[in-house]
Amino acid sequence: MSVAFTGVSESVDTPGGGTDGRARAATGRRVVPTHAELASWRSFLRAHATITKALEAELETEQQLSLAAYDVLVQLSEAPGRRLRMTELADAVLLSRSGVTRLVDRLERSGLVCRSRVADDGRGVAAELTEDGLSRLRGASVTHLRGIRAHFADALDESDLSALEKISRKLAP
């Protein structure tokens, strides 16, 4: 059995015994990514992690706000009435429900968000962006958008940006 540079086996045991270097699922699709696919995947992860880390550090340093908190404020600012059910907010920011609850707790203590019951659902709770939260978001947006320019947009030309948008839409329609 050969081993790829990633530590992932290039050859996979097949149900009938032996190995198939081009291992395929019952659907006929390859199971194991090629070297090129893995290199692209790792490059994508490295780029995402590098940019996210830089944006997070800038927001923390300049605005004392985490990237996740910034994302919550953005999602609320764009919602009708600057208000979302907690479940909708969790889906929008890609955090677990418990993660969003803890984050909203902190934002509520800071006066940036308030909670209220959903009128037509006795168990439903919504988070709403306060005026202080909107003001804080406006200030943090200067830092964040400058970071997007510096760590992302300036490194790409128009064709890169177009291709990346097209690829991203395929990956996350």
UniProtKB/TrEMBL annotation:
Domain HTH marR-type: 41-173
Source superkingdom: Bacteria
PROSITE patterns reported for this sequence: HTH_MARR_2 (PS50995)
A Pfam family annotated for this UniProt entry: MarR_2
SMART domains referenced in this protein's UniProt entry, alphabetically: HTH_MARR
GO MF annotation terms: DNA-binding transcription factor activity
Gene Ontology process terms (BP): response to stress
Region annotated Disordered, chain positions: 1-29
Full protein name: MarR family transcriptional regulator
